[in-house]
Specification:
With 293 residues, the protein is of the alpha+beta class. The chain has helices at 14-28, 33-37, 93-105, 159-170, 185-194, 232-239, and strands at 5-8, 45-52, 55-69, 72-84, 111-116, 130-132, 135-140, 151-154, 179-182, 200-203, 208-215, 218-225, 246-249, 261-264, 270-275. It comes from Litchfieldia salsa.
């Protein structure tokens, strides 16, 4: 299309960032401004956008990170925030931006991947992506008598708590060496601010931050943020109650001696992968939810 300009990595341009947020609000109901103002929109999140005048009308964003696969570090790009203003759809703008992203990054990274909603499942195979099943991991659990727990609830709206979380996350170990991520603290902070604001706890006895929800008989664990490996039995004993019967992990657990069950994740969203060379994406894994763009 003529009359459009390409901009990328413009987070500090107030006018364009506002327009980006306006489009994200229109398409996804999301606004990135608080994330930006609190300092967590870092150089690893890079929007590629078409702009008409001063209005962002199409975007594909890049997240630069590392994957941990069976203990090995792999360079990766996660694509997200793919959006086009309704007035400009059907003109090939997303395809054009995707081609630019692929041209810039695909030769330098081991994996490029994204999570797509069901409306666009035919779009990404055109660029060499293929769908991969994710898996849901769960554990039947019988509460055990524990010692004194010392849990402090953190507030995703409190800047001191957010800085504490960020500092721990900046030096964290991966949530799983079987399949985890690194350099994703920016995405994590997005989740802490917008998604799990009231579900973050610091376990002082374990020196770990746990993001979880407890609902009747089930506890859902979304992340365990620690600078050392945790003893999962100790964590579970602190966050469960007498009625807990099931633990659901929203990542790929690899705790020794733990008999976890896995099944194909029943979700409308689909993980798409493009691997470079001889790199192979692992089977039967769950991408950590708090580093999913």
């Amino acid at each position: 299309m003529t009359g459009l300009s390409l901009y990328k990595d413009y987070k500090n341009n107030d006018e364009l960032r506002k327009s980006f947020n306006d489009l994200a609000t229109l398409v996804f109901g999301l606004n990135f401004e608080e994330w930006y103002k609190k300092g967590y929109w870092n150089d690893r999140y890079i929007p590629f956008s078409y702009v008409a005048g001063t209005k962002v009308i199409a975007n594909v964003s890049v997240n630069i990170l590392k994957l941990v696969i069976n203990g090995e570090i792999k360079k990766a790009i996660q694509i997200g925030t793919v959006m086009t203003h309704p007035d400009y759809r059907g003109k090939g703008l997303s395809s054009s931006l995707m081609n630019m992203v692929m041209e810039e990054y695909e030769d330098s990274y081991d994996f490029i991947y994204l999570v797509a909603n069901p409306n666009v499942l035919e779009f990404y195979p055109k660029f060499g992506f293929h769908p991969v099943n994710e898996y849901r991991y769960s554990l039947s659990y019988s509460p055990k008598t524990s010692g004194t727990s010392n849990i402090r609830k953190l507030d995703g709206g409190n800047i001191e708590d957010l800085e504490f979380i960020y500092n721990v996350a900046s030096e964290r170990v991966p949530v799983s060496n079987l399949f985890g991520t690194q350099d994703t603290q920016g995405i994590l902070m997005f989740y802490c601010i917008y998604v799990f604001k009231s579900d973050i706890y610091f376990l002082e006895n374990e020196d770990a931050i746990v993001i979880f929800k407890a609902n009747e008989n089930q506890v859902d664990i979304f992340d365990i943020i620690s600078q050392k490996e945790v003893i999962i039995e100790n964590v579970l004993s602190e966050i469960t109650s007498a009625t807990t019967k099931k633990i659901v992990f929203h990542y790929t657990p690899n705790y020794k001696g733990m008999n976890v069950h896995n099944e194909v994740l029943n979700s409308d969203d689909v993980l798409f992968i493009k691997a470079k060379g001889n790199n192979h994406f692992p089977l039967r894994v769950k991408h950590p939810i708090t580093s999913q763009a």
